[in-house]
Amino acid sequence: MATTGRRIFQVIDGNKKFVGDGFDVTSPMPGPRIRQLSPFLLIDHTGPMPVAPTEAPLGTPPHPHRGFETVTVVYEGYLAHRDTAGHTGALGPGDVQWMTAGAGLLHEERHEREFARRGGTLELLQLWVNVPARDKLAPPRYQNIRAEAIPEVLTADGRGRIRVVSGSYEGVAGPAATFSPINLLDVHLPAGTATTLHLPADYNVGIYVVKGSITLHGNRSAATKQLVVFGWDAPELHLTATEDTVLVVLAGEPIEEPLATYGPFVMNTNRELVQAIADFESGGMGTFPEDE
């Protein structure tokens, strides 16, 4: 296999944290390479973690968002969502949730009730995705994308599967609607599979290894819970799975605008952040019925 391809900027290990009372998380970003991965802002990888049976599902309590999107890919277990824009949904293995916070909402994510009752293993990936300034205050939107609705492209040897969540790959379009061009690919490669990924040369590109290990361009390696950040000098990524591997390709047209962030708000200016906080504190992002 050829060894030329996109320059590798950095291989990043994640930091451990616990989110809410139900998510044991590894996060390789945000970090020093955040501008090289725009429009992607954050990666939270939950699990794989055991969930003990309980009648009270664990997770995160209601919290606000404005000005960006959350994208959740479930690998094991089940997750439930609700928000103050009136959206509800449950996700299982292979499903993807693409939520647009837009002008602002509160949402809650917990282990799905029946899954919580029986217990099991939970593993999921959540991304935060920026949107252009013109779309920061768009109406909230919720896309609950079932596994069977996500098309697949096979690698050249027919052994690997590339699930196209958004954008297009090899002429196959993904179902998720986005505000800026994004190719989000969920890639499953048996051990020994070698493939070349073709992505727009002007896109920012990263690979996050959910599990397994890969060799890149014949001489660099990355393994479970590591993020690889690439340059813009070639459209090809050459990789080989050295064991059974699942990885996510994050590729998108960069949003070259000022970035102002504070906790769950992602805007363009500090003044907009002040307004977001005021709107949240005044109840402008909604309430759940039990809180009224």
Q: How would you describe what is shown here?
A:
The protein has 292 residues and is mainly beta. It has one domain (8-252): Sandwich (Jelly Rolls). Helix content is 6%, strand content 51%. It contains two helices and 26 strands. The protein has helices at 113-118, 270-281, and strands spanning 8-13, 15-19, 23-29, 40-51, 59-65, 68-76, 79-83, 88-91, 96-100, 105-111, 120-130, 141-145, 152-154, 161-166, 168-169, 172-173, 182-189, 194-198, 204-211, 213-216, 220-223, 226-230, 236-241, 245-252, 260-262, 265-267. Strands 1-22-19-24-17-14-13 form a seven-stranded antiparallel sheet, with no helix packed on it. It is globular and about 55 Å long. The chain starts with 7 loop residues before the first strand and ends in an 11-residue tail after the last helix. The mean pLDDT is 95. Residues 26-129 form the Pirin N-terminal domain. Keywords: Iron, Metal-binding. Fe cation binds at residues 63, 65, 107, 109. Its cofactor is Fe cation. One of its GO terms (molecular function) is metal ion binding.
What general form does the structure show?
Answer: globular
Low-confidence parts: none
What percent of residues are in strands?
A: over 45%
**Cross-sheet strand order for the largest sheet:** 1-22-19-24-17-14-13
Oligomer: single chain
Radius of gyration: 19 Å
CATH architecture term: Sandwich
Identify the CATH homologous superfamily: Jelly Rolls
Report the order of strands and helices. Answer: EEEEEEEEEEHEEEEEEEEEEEEEEEEH
And the CATH topology?
Jelly Rolls
Organism: Hymenobacter mucosus
Cofactor: Fe cation
Family: Belongs to the pirin family.
Domain Pirin N-terminal: 26-129
